[in-house]
Each structure stands twice: as structure tokens, then as C-alpha cells.
Specification:
9 helices, about 240 residues, 7-stranded mixed β-sheet, alpha/beta
């Protein structure tokens, strides 16, 4: 007898990268962690935290963080939704948008969590293979008619990046949401921030885990037009940041 839905019984869960025993001499590459320390300014802020605040729940929407992101990126804070890492935001997106008859589409190989989250929601999955050039297959992604289309840009594990023109073509023709996962954007020459302003169906994800070397904080954010942010906020966990 099982207590779980059939989907969960047959689910292949996300397998995190192996964590070595502390103190062992290992060159660890399996989770793309930054080998360098965080910015001294970030460390100074962490050292100055008021520990008395730990007994209280944080602001439910992390408004201070939203305002800081807005100031740095030049967007209104209403366009920003913080998450417990960008994985939390991926979960919100799939929870809110995907399901039976509402496919999740992405080019492959890419971040495997997209597939796992779609399976949890019993959503059809359409994984569109890259060819040897690793050029974003816009036409085949469109043909899959996803309710939710993920594009990691730059992509992991290939390290390739789609030019803004191809992302624009995809956003323009898609009926569903296009999620551009920019976890590694600091290592690229361009970003897709301007697409959010022009397309109501575009969501950009960012994280402080990679280039900012703050993976242990689990802090990320989405940038989208306010109607999308409001919809995602309906399904987020309480006090998630």
C-alpha cells in the first residue's frame, strides 16, 4: 500500500551533487559552486546582522530585498519576486502554470530540475534536443506549444548562450510563459532584461548562488511584469526568504 500519488511513486527525484566530508581534499565541480569567497562587502553585512531578528519571521515578501534589486537593475520593486534560491521560483512557476494537459518544454541537455518539477505536477514534458551546434531550437520549441517553456541562458552544462534575437523570436511567438533562467548570466556578454519590459509572458530568474558565491544563503529572484509576479505570489510558501 502506498500513501502517495502514482506520480510520486514512480518519480525519479532530483539528485543533488555529492557533498564531500568536511576536511577532505577534494576539487569539487559537481554543483558549479564558486571557488572564491563572497565579496568582502557582503561578508561585512552578514557580520553586522542583528541576531535578535532571528526570533521573528521575516517580511513575507522581502520588500527590502525587492527594493535593492530594483535599484541595482533599474526596475520597479513590483516587478521583483524573491525566492529561497531560484529553485524555489522554479517550483512556484511549475506549481502555478503546469499540470495535466499543460506541457513543460525545454531544450536538452539542461538543468534536470525542470523535468523533476514537471513530473511532480503531472505535467507533460517535451524535451527538445539541441543539435551539435547548441543553437537554441526556436521553431521546435514553439511547435511543442508549452504552457511553460524554460531556457537556461547561458545553458548548463554546455555553457552556450542564445543571442537576444532568438529569445525575442521565441517570446514573441509563444502563447505560454517563457522563463529565461539566468543563473550564469554574470559570465555572459548579454542578458534578457529588456525582454521583460516588452513581453508580458517573459520571466527572468537570477540567483546569488553562482557569481556572488552565496549559495549557502539560498537567495534568488524573478523579474516579470506585475501581473505575473502577483500570480506567482499566490503559490509561494509563507515566509520563504
Amino acid at each position: 500500500m502506498s500513501f502517495f500519488r502514482a506520480t510520486i511513486d514512480t518519480l525519479h527525484p532530483y539528485a543533488p551533487g555529492r557533498q564531500p566530508v568536511p576536511g577532505t581534499r577534494v576539487i569539487k565541480l559537481n554543483t558549479n559552486e564558486n571557488p572564491y569567497a563572497p565579496s568582502p562587502r557582503a561578508l561585512d553585512v552578514l557580520r553586522q546582522l542583528d541576531v535578535d531578528r532571528l526570533r521573528r519571521y521575516p517580511h513575507p515578501f522581502a520588500d527590502e530585498f525587492r527594493e535593492a534589486v530594483g535599484e541595482v537593475l533599474g526596475v520597479d520593486p513590483a516587478w521583483v519576486l524573491p525566492g529561497n534560491g531560484s529553485d524555489d521560483l522554479l517550483t512556484m512557476l511549475v506549481r502555478a502554470v503546469a499540470g495535466p494537459g499543460r506541457p513543460v518544454v525545454y531544450p536538452t541537455p539542461t538543468y534536470v530540475l525542470y523535468h523533476t518539477l514537471a513530473e511532480i505536477q503531472s505535467a507533460p514534458v517535451v524535451a527538445v534536443p539541441f543539435d551539435d551546434s547548441f543553437i537554441l531550437p526556436v521553431e521546435r520549441l514553439l511547435a511543442a506549444q508549452g504552457a511553460l517553456t524554460f531556457v537556461a541562458n547561458p545553458n548548463s552544462p554546455s555553457g552556450t548562450a542564445a543571442p537576444r534575437e532568438r529569445l525575442t523570436a521565441l517570446a514573441t511567438a509563444l502563447d505560454g510563459l517563457l522563463v529565461i533562467d539566468e543563473a550564469y548570466v554574470a559570465f555572459a556578454d548579454d542578458d534578457a532584461l529588456t525582454l521583460v519590459r516588452r513581453h508580458s509572458n517573459v520571466v527572468i530568474l537570477r540567483t546569488l548562488s553562482k557569481s556572488h558565491a552565496l549559495a549557502g544563503l539560498r537567495l534568488g529572484f524573478a523579474i516579470a511584469q506585475p501581473a505575473v509576479v502577483e500570480g506567482l505570489a499566490k503559490v509561494k510558501d509563507s515566509y520563504n526568504v
